[in-house]
Amino acid sequence: MLSFVKQLVKQLFKKPSTNPFPCKHVPKSFTHLMEEVEKGKAKINKPIKTPPRFRGRLIYHEDKCIRCKQCIRVCPAKALEFDEKNNRIKHYVSRCTFCGQCVDICPVKALEQSDEFLLADYNKDAGFLIPEKKQ
Ligand code: SF4
Ligand code: SF4
Known about the structure:
This protein is an alpha+beta fold and 135 residues long. It has four helices and four strands. It has two domains: 2-38, no CATH class; 58-133, Alpha-Beta Plaits (2-Layer Sandwich).
């Protein structure tokens, strides 16, 4: 009982361990929140740093790709397709489970996983992260 009270008192003076991202209370509209941030009327808390080897949104280095299509074959979520018209791999973020199998199988390291985890997009066909956009 004593240890419980000690723990309780300790917790009362401790800072919360969670990071209130992007802000303390969930806003009714994120679009409105971002507009307020742009105007300097609201502030967002930065996300915490992702751990090493975090499996985020895929980056495709098209210049390295040899079009072997092995990534398409191993993808369990059918999130990759070959875009014949543009002669490149097409990725559907909304289907991806971020398992990393395509990255592991690629013989020329044309695919890598970024630490990008903010995936909300108006475009349901949103694909790879553009290599230049990687921080
Ligand atoms: S990370 Fe996994 S689910 Fe996503 S595209 Fe690659 S193989 Fe498919
Ligand atoms: S496995 Fe790599 S080289 Fe082969 S098609 Fe996929 S991205 Fe291109």
